[in-house]
Each structure stands twice: as structure tokens, then as C-alpha cells.
Amino acid sequence: MRIFVTGGAGFIGSNYLLYMVNKYPTYEFINYDVLTYAGNLENLSQIEGISNYQFIKGDITNKDLVDKLLSTGFDAIVHFAAESHVDRSILEPDIFVKTNVLGTQNLLESAKKFGVKKFVHVSTDEVYGSLGETGLFTEETPLAPNSPYSASKAGSDLLVRAYHETFGLPVNITRCSNNYGPYQFPEKLIPLIIANALADKTLPVYGDGLNIRDWLYVEDHCSAIDLVLHEGVNGEVYNIGGNNERTNIHIVQTILQELGKPESLIRFVKDRPGHDRRYGIDATKITTQLGWKPVHNFETGIQKTIRWYLDNQGWWKRIQSGEYQQYFDQQYGSR
Ligand code: NAD
Fold it and tell me: What is the pTM for the complete model shown?
């Protein structure tokens, strides 16, 4: 199999490549990534130089380059590339529409032109909007995105669906809950809290801290995408989630306890506009129809994650020293 992976230098894409390149030594993987602030080839140093893996720098909105590469014949596209951070989408929505909507359409068009046999579109539970105190998102829940990020992902999901309905493109859409684990950019909740707590900096928590997310260890997401790539029924959507609903404040308190740091570091900040209250995933379809099962529960996953950030401080400190600091100060005020 030849697989064209987009966004493979980001958090989930790099975990996916590390998982797949070792698991399938006879497959060929091309990692196509433009390397935005969130892309980091350092994540992939373990597979650099391995013969079934190659990196190509490029933008998914670049029609000529995408066509040129896909014309060489690929069995599958696994599409991770996106602008992925909700807070940034509030500051700068344009790039989210360009990359997430137009970039996805460009890939779909090229996949159609060159007869790609499977297009796996990696999406998010955020396209469903916000839940009340009860109920879960199923694949039939209507899309009701509330942030420019989730709206742009919903737009891309609908284009993927349309390319299946109109042109018969063999697609799957996966909608996963919040991921955590190694190589997550330190603007996202869990690595942000770990890094700031270790440096005894204040820990910004939105609103009352009671927003609920369902958390999945990234490797479990990768195993689900692997299954969908091989076994997914064309045209189907698969929800992926860990049955690990936690409030944001619970996450922060758990990390502080694990690190032996005081709760006085917590600082409640003005809530994010349009902040979804609760996400919860019903993953019955992928578990019963494809036999997927996550290996980690939240307690084991968070300990493994904290250990990784403790053992790899150079990785996130290098990131924090650049453009990221400017963004952080703009978002939460400098300290
Ligand atoms: P990330 O921001 O860490 O990585 C995104 C990657 O895409 C980066 O390597 C970046 O350089 C690349 N990229 C961005 N724009 C590009 C472009 N125009 N052309 C080529 N490459 C480009 O994101 P992530 O957290 O790894 O998320 C990956 C995918 O999974 C996204 O589609 C996201 O919507 C989805 N998702 C994420 C989560 C989560 O919790 N992180 C949950 C569910 C779904």
C-alpha cells in the first residue's frame, strides 16, 4: 500500500506515522506537510531515514504540487492537515477556512482525478456542537459547530460526504474526541498545564473550569484510524472516543497532584467566546462494527503523558522559546 499522509508533522499525524511505519514495514508512507507553527519534524526523528517513509514539504492548497504527487499513484490518503486550535480560529478565522475547507476540497479533487482507493478524513467531535448534561454524540447527531475551527471542520466533512455521494469517492470520516499524549503542542490544555506547572507559572483555566471533554490517548486514536483505513465501509462516519469525560478543572487538579504542585497556581480567566460546555462521544459503531477498543483509560494515559513531558523537556522548551510565547502573551496576558 502507498499512503499519502497529510499533516504528519503535527501532534496526531506524527503519532500515527510512528505507529504505522513500524507496524507496516511493507507499506510506503509519504508525509506531506507545510510545517506551520504546529508542524515539527523533530517528532519523527525515530523514523527519519527508514526506507518506507519520506517527508515532502508542501501545502494542501497547492493544486499543482498535490496533483503532481498524487499522479504517481496512491492507494490511500489519510488526511490530518488542518489548522486545529480553537483559540487561534477566534483570532484569525481566514486561515482556518483556507486550509481546512479549501485544502480538503483540493485533496478530494485530486484524489478523484487520480483514483485514490480510500480517503480517510480525520475530523472532530466539535462539529456536533455542545451537549447538555446528558446524552452523547452519535454519527447521526446533526452538525452544529460553534467556533470558526469547528465550522471549518464541518465544512470539510460535508465536502468529503459530497465527493462520496456525487462522485463515488471511497471515503470515511472519523470524528474523535480530545486527544492527549506525546508531541502535543503546548498551547493545548494538558501540555500547557504540565509545562506551566513545572515552571511554577500560573495556569489559565477558562470560565468556571467546568466544561467537559471526553479524552482519548493519542495512540488509541491512531489504532482506530488504522482500522478505518483497512476495514471502514465506504461512505461511513465513525465516532471515536474514550468514555473518559472529565471537567477541565479536574484535569488541571490531576496534573498538579501528579507533579506535586499547589492549586494556588490556578488562575480562572475570562471564558472563551462560544465555549462549548460538554462533549461526549458514543463510539458504539466503531467498537461493534470494526472491533476497535482503546487500550488506555484516563488514569493510565495521563500518567504516561506526564512522564513523557518530564522526560522530553527539551522538546517543548524549544517550542516555547519561539513564536509561541508571543501567542501565549496575546491570549492570556504576559507574566
Ligand atoms: P496539529 O495542529 O498538531 O497539526 C496539524 C498539522 O497540519 C501540522 O503539522 C501542520 O504543519 C499541518 N498543516 C497545517 N496546515 C497545512 C497545510 N495548509 N498544508 C499542509 N500541512 C498543513 O493538529 P492535530 O492536533 O495533530 O490534529 C490533526 C487532525 O486531527 C486535525 O484535522 C484535527 O482537526 C483533528 N483532530 C484533532 C483532535 C485533537 O484533540 N488534537 C481531536 C480530533 C480531531
Answer: 0.96
